[in-house]
């Protein structure tokens, strides 16, 4: 399979899907809850995933799709070509703000990320990366990230980290918030990962993300030297939900060692 051809194909699907999403903004959304009241999905999330699946299945019959809304394949391994797709990452933003949401896509071959994309739909900016081919923001090649100190870091965390929770001891996070330069919370994991890759954030962490939230970002992050692991400093499993942290080198180790204490 020609990587360049696959890349061109994936980009054109993303652009068309994004055009359809933008067009849909003038009509009324059908909003439903999934696992709990605030876990939202709209008809556009579903239609966008179906759009990708229709095209991929027609053009690459042997490729499989691991999509958030469940219209793809039942994925139990990453053998062959697997597309990990979040049709709209940041659905709450999509509904409430009509901005700050992204299409997140990673293409893996036998478990190795070969192409990754995060398309910020309303900003019309495409972050992409290919295995050993570098990372790009539209046509601009991104430089490798250098390390940052905790004191000078702007970190992507949300308020849940500093109240009692089932994942981490919040006292360590209070200490972190008292030490860092600033914090931000954007409401889309994919966009937050894209901010780390482009140097707008120094780190981003989440207590629980799914494979489709991070797959595209992982491919891109690797190309700029960002470190991505779960909060136990282990390799990320792309078949299941896991905790997540992506950061500049050096900072990653410091955050996990000195501030984030898992329960
Ligand atoms: C969510 C967003 C959010 C993150 C959640 C994700 P969705 O994805 O990325 O920022 O905190 O954990 O589930 O549901 O909007 O695709
Ligand atoms: Ca998501
Ligand atoms: Ca989603």
From TrEMBL:
Indicate the enzyme's highest-level EC class: hydrolase
The alphabetical list of record keywords is: Hydrolase, Magnesium, Metal-binding
Q: Name one GO molecular function term.
A: metal ion binding
**Chain residues that bind Mg(2+):** 68, 86, 88-89, 213
The cross-references to CDD domains, in alphabetical order and at most eight, read:
IMPase_like
User: Could you say which EC number(s) this protein's record lists?
Assistant: 3.1.3.25
Co-factor(s): Mg(2+)
Question: Reaction catalysed by this chain?
Answer: a myo-inositol phosphate + H2O = myo-inositol + phosphate
The residue stretches assigned to a coiled coil in this entry are: none
- Entry annotated with the keyword Magnesium: yes
List the InterPro entries: Inositol_monoP_metal-BS (IPR020583), Inositol_monophosphatase-like (IPR000760), Inositol_monophosphatase_CS (IPR020550)
SUPFAM superfamilies attached here?
Carbohydrate phosphatase
Keyword check for Magnesium: yes
Any Gene Ontology biological process: phosphatidylinositol phosphate biosynthetic process
Full protein name: inositol-phosphate phosphatase
């Amino acid at each position: 399979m020609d990587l360049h051809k696959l890349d061109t194909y994936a980009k054109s699907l993303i652009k068309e899907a994004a055009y359809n999403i933008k067009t849909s903004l003038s009509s009324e959304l059908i909003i439903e809850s999934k696992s709990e009241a605030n876990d939202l999905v709209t008809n556009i999330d579903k239609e966008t995933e179906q759009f990708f699946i229709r095209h991929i299945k027609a053009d690459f019959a042997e490729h499989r799709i691991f999509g958030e809304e469940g219209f793809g394949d039942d994925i139990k391994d990453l053998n062959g070509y697997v597309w990990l797709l979040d049709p709209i990452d940041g659905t709450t933003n999509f509904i409430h703000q009509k901005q700050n949401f992204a299409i997140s896509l990673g293409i893996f071959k036998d478990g190795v990320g070969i192409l990754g994309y995060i398309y910020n739909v309303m900003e019309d900016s495409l972050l992409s990366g290919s295995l050993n081919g570098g990372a790009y923001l539209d046509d601009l090649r991104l430089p490798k990230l250098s390390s940052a100190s905790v004191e000078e870091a702007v970190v992507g965390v949300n308020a849940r980290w500093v109240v009692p929770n089932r994942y981490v001891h919040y006292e360590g996070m209070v200490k972190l918030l008292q030490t860092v330069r600033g914090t931000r919370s954007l409401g889309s994991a994919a966009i937050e990962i894209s901010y780390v890759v482009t140097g707008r954030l120094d780190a981003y962490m989440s207590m629980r993300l799914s494979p489709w939230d991070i797959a595209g970002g992982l491919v891109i992050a690797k190309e700029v030297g960002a470190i991505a692991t779960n909060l136990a400093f282990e390799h990320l499993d792309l078949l299941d939900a896991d905790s997540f942290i992506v950061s500049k080198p050096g900072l990653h180790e410091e955050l996990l060692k000195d501030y984030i204490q898992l329960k």
